[in-house]
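Need residues for this backbone.
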């Protein structure tokens, strides 16, 4: 058995002895060796192209040494190799030190993010940094690392950044001039707001060489559903007139598509995932969705199973009308794209649901509504302890939302024209949970076209003509091909041509004698009395 075979067996054994949740909390997802070798071979090619024969390798999150093993395997005999690796977890670090004893590598059991640079100056850094989301990092640690990162690079890092962002910035001080650096990281930084710090670093502190994004439907890790990218750069003064290679799909060695993109374009493009398939988005879009609609997320109840009740359950608890509001089922359960209403404004659906909205429980309420009070008390032992509920003044209180005339299902795995983004026309007074985005007409829309339901229908028809690709281009994609668009991202969708479409549609409706039901966009939120 060679050393790499020993390493793979060791990795499997160590992973099996560690709780999955503990591994996730430290972002410990080992890089498969075939992928590690592809990545390392490319890095060595870049380094060789600079005429450099000696390899001074560093991995700031080495684990059992997948990348180092790939370096040893790929280095030719005439290349001199020295290496250093950091690993914070003794569970992996101690066996790794023993495994690589006698090889030209020093493995330090230490937190790289807090480690001052040693005299060792690497010219090749390849790393799969810990994938730890910001909310799993302690506030003091984030503050300390953010200060270090800004001090070293001048880049201000967002508090929403994952640990991998800090690792990339903190490695900068280690790099020798001309060093090649490759990072296997979540591709989400290319789309999200907190990713701006990494993009600023790649554009202004180093020379960006290549970004390869794997197809999100083809996860690179067996134990983590994450969309991955490999980012390559060279330590040195950036070239504002230069370009970088963007590749996508296939493998790192043989991507499905590629395109060189000017650094100047990357400066203005907010969504780097447009490349290589698309072009830089025009900044002079005539009309965006925000011109006509404000987008809000649906409500987060704290526990849908407890607070969202069937009509029969509501009757059984004798809940008065003022303590509830109709609410739509989730997108999968809502089959129709148009929700009609009865004379009371309740949605005409096979099964109607209601959100429980109660005032503060008082002695008088206990006398008048004993069944309801007893139901609420039944949730005090478990529901009230939930993260959202325990943050409220009254654990059972709910957010306020007005009914929205148009809703959007904003997350799913559909592709092509049958993608996950679905618009629903809502004639009822039902609100929705946070499995939807809620679209409220702006003052501009109502001033230009009025506030009738015929206007909302015209808008709904137009939105259904907007391509899924346009919406996806403003959103983000996760491992397994999960696509998602946030409220601000949906508001940035290009709806050029809406004004003329709406005018023609409304004119046609008038000629046909269509009636208009008014939508009160300025109405106060429904609240318990």
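Answer:
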């Amino acid at each position: 058995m060679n050393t790499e075979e020993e390493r793979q067996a060791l990795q499997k054994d160590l992973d099996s002895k560690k709780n999955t949740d503990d591994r996730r909390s430290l972002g410990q997802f080992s890089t498969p060796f075939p992928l590690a070798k592809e990545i390392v071979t490319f890095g060595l090619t870049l380094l060789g192209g600079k005429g450099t024969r000696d390899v001074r390798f560093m991995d700031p999150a080495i684990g059992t040494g997948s990348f180092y093993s790939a370096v040893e395997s790929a280095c030719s005999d005439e290349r001199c190799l020295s290496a250093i690796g950091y690993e914070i977890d003794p569970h992996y670090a101690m066996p790794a030190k023993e495994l690589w004893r006698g090889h030209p590598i020093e493995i330090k059991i230490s937190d790289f993010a807090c480690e001052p640079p040693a005299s060792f100056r690497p010219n090749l850094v390849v790393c799969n940094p810990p994938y730890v989301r910001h909310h799993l990092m302690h506030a003091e640690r984030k503050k300390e690392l953010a200060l270090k990162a800004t001090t070293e690079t001048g880049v201000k890092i967002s508090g929403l950044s994952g640990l991998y962002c800090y690792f990339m910035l903190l490695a900068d001080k280690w790099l020798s001039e001309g060093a090649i650096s490759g990072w296997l990281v979540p591709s989400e930084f290319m789309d999200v707001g907190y990713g701006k710090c990494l993009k600023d670093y790649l554009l202004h502190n180093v020379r960006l060489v290549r970004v390869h994004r794997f197809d999100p439907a083809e996860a690179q890790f067996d134990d983590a559903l994450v969309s991955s990218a490999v980012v390559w750069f060279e330590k040195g003064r950036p070239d504002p007139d230069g370009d970088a290679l963007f590749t996508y799909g296939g493998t790192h060695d043989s991507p499905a598509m590629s395109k060189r993109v000017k650094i100047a374009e990357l400066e203005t493009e907010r969504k780097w995932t447009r490349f290589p398939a698309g072009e830089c988005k025009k900044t002079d879009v005539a009309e965006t969705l925000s011109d006509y609609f404000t987008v809000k997320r649906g409500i987060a109840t704290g526990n849908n199973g407890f607070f969202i009740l069937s009509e029969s359950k509501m009757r059984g608890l004798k809940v008065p009308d003022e303590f509830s509001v109709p609410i739509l089922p989730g997108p999968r359960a809502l089959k129709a794209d148009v929700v009609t209403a009865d004379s009371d404004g309740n949605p005409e659906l096979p099964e109607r649901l209601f959100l429980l909205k109660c005032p503060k429980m008082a002695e008088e309420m206990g006398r008048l509504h004993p069944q309801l009070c007893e139901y609420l008390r039944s949730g005090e032992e478990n529901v009230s302890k939930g993260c959202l509920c325990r943050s409220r003044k009254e654990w059972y209180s709910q957010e306020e939302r007005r009914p929205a005339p148009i809703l959007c299902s904003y997350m799913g795995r559909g592709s092509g024209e049958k993608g996950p983004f679905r618009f629903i026309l809502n004639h009822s007074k039902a609100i929705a949970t946070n499995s939807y985005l809620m679209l409220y007409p702006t003052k501009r829309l109502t001033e230009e076209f009025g506030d009738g339901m015929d206007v909302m229908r015209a808008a709904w028809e137009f939105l259904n003509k907007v391509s899924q690709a346009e919406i996806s281009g403003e959103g983000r994609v996760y491992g397994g091909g999960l696509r998602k668009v946030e409220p601000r991202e949906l508001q940035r969708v290009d709806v050029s041509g809406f004004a003329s479409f709406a005018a023609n549609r409304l004119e046609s409706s008038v000629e046909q004698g269509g009636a208009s039901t008014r939508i009160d966009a300025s109405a106060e939120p429904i609240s318990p009395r």
